[in-house]
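Issue 218. Parser rejects a valid record. Input:
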Amino acid sequence: MSKYLTIDPTDLAEAFRALGNPQRLRLFLKLAACCRTGDVCCDVDSERRCVGEIGDDLGVSASTVSHHLKELRQAGLIHMERQGRNIQCWVEPATMRKLASFFSHDEKGTES
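Output the parser choked on:
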């Protein structure tokens, strides 16, 4: 049986849809910078980023950054948590493992 039959296509489609926007992809890549292929992302506590600093160098308004982060969260790609006046974001490790698993196997379900 193909490994692809065990992955929920709806979850993957949501992730791919969210990452299909260039600005969202840039935001996600900033958050996922510590993740390595075939490895779990780094410690969540050390890789939390404040919403206010994530979009600093992208040249978009704070409301646009918030909208894109909401889309990434709804797709299950990131977590967001309020800490006092700040909102912290980090990559969802389980989703990263699911995406890595999808891309690391060929159509026969074996590792490449």
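Fixed in the parser; the record now loads. The radius of gyration is 15 Å.
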